[in-house]
Write a structure and sequence with these properties.
single chain, 286 residues, alpha/beta, Rossmann fold, four-stranded parallel beta sheet, 10 helices, globular
Length: 286
C-alpha cells in the first residue's frame, strides 16, 4: 500500500470516528444537571406556568421578550441557540404558526431537544392560538407540563405534583370568584383590537368583538358598523393589548365617547392578570 493510500485510510478512519461520535452525542438524552431542569418557552405566560409547577427546580428561558409583538417577532440565531441549551422546550402548539418555522430551525441546531406540545387535549376554537388565556385550557396546559417534567426528572414527582395541585386550586378559586362577580355585569360584549380573548370571555358568557380582522385593520365600512353598534349598546371602552398600535382603537373610542383600556394577553403572572381583568371588566361593563 502506498503512502498516499495510507493517509487516505487514516483520514477515513478519523472521519468515521468523528461521525460515530457525533451520532452518539446527537442521540443521547440531555441530562438534568444539579437538579435544575433548563426549560425554554415561546411566551411569558408559559414561563409563569413552568415556574408555578417547577418552583426552584427549574430555570426558564423565554424566547419572545416582554413587550414584543409575537406576530412580528423574528428570533436571532443566538436566541434559538439559547433555546437548544434547554432540557425541554414547551411550545404553545401547532396552531401558533410562528412556532412551526422556529421548531424546524431549532431541530436543525440540536435534534436532542425534547419538544412538548402544550395544546394536547385542548379543544382549539377557530384556530385561535391564545389558549393560555382560558382558565380551563390553562389547567390542561399545566397538566401537560407536569407530565413531561416528571418524565425528565422523576425524583421530584411529588414536589411537582404538590405545586401543580396548589396552582389548580388557585385557578379554581379565582374562577368561582370571577363567575360570581361577572354575573353582575350589565353589558355582555367587549370590543377588543386584537381578538385574543375568546377562551376567557366565552367561559363567562361574554362576547368578544374584534376590531382587527385576520391580522388586518378594519375596512371603513366595518369600522362604521362597529361604531354604530357600540353606540347603540352604550359601550364605554375599547380594549387593546399593549403590543399593538392604538390608532384604530382610539378612533372608535373617540367616536363613542369611551376610553382606550389596556389588557395584557401575555402576562408574566397569570393569576395577577385575572385580577386586573376583573377590575377593568367591572369598571367598564357594569
Amino acid at each position: 500500500m502506498s503512502r498516499l493510500q495510507n493517509k487516505i485510510k487514516i483520514f477515513l478512519i478519523v472521519l468515521l470516528s468523528f461521525s460515530l461520535l457525533f451520532l452518539i452525542c446527537s442521540c443521547k438524552k440531555k441530562e438534568v444537571k444539579d437538579g435544575i431542569i433548563k426549560v425554554a418557552v415561546t411566551i411569558s405566560p408559559y414561563g409563569d406556568f413552568i415556574s408555578k409547577i417547577g418552583g426552584n427546580r427549574v430555570n426558564v428561558v423565554v424566547l419572545i421578550p416582554a413587550g414584543a409583538d409575537p406576530h412580528n417577532f423574528e428570533p436571532s440565531f443566538n436566541q434559538l441557540l439559547n433555546v437548544t441549551k434547554a432540557n425541554v422546550y414547551f411550545r404553545v402548539g401547532e396552531v401558533l404558526q410562528i412556532e412551526n418555522e422556529w421548531i424546524k430551525r431549532i431541530e436543525d441546531i440540536d435534534k436532542r431537544l425534547k419538544i412538548i406540545d402544550c395544546s394536547k387535549g385542548i379543544n382549539v376554537i377557530n384556530n385561535n392560538p391564545h389558549m393560555w388565556l382560558g382558565l380551563e385550557e390553562v389547567k390542561v396546559i399545566i397538566e401537560n407540563i407536569y407530565s413531561a417534567m416528571v418524565v425528565i426528572d422523576p425524583k421530584y414527582e411529588e414536589y411537582f405534583g404538590i405545586n401543580k395541585e396548589r396552582f389548580v386550586r388557585q385557578i379554581d378559586s379565582m374562577d368561582v370568584f370571577l363567575k360570581n362577580d361577572f354575573q353582575e355585569l350589565s353589558k355582555r360584549e367587549i370590543i377588543v383590537y386584537h381578538p385574543a380573548w375568546e377562551y376567557f370571555t366565552s367561559h363567562y358568557g361574554i362576547v368578544e368583538i374584534g376590531i382587527e380582522k385576520e391580522g388586518k385593520n378594519p375596512r371603513a365600512g366595518d369600522l362604521k358598523e362597529l361604531i354604530t353598534n357600540a353606540k347603540s349598546k352604550k359601550v364605554k371602552a375599547v380594549f387593546i393589548e399593549p403590543q399593538f398600535d392604538i390608532t384604530s382603537a382610539k378612533t372608535i373610542a373617540d367616536e363613542i365617547g369611551g376610553e382606550v383600556v389596556t389588557i395584557n394577553p401575555l402576562p408574566s403572572d397569570f393569576l395577577q392578570n385575572l385580577n386586573d381583568l376583573k377590575m377593568k371588566f367591572n369598571m367598564y361593563l357594569k
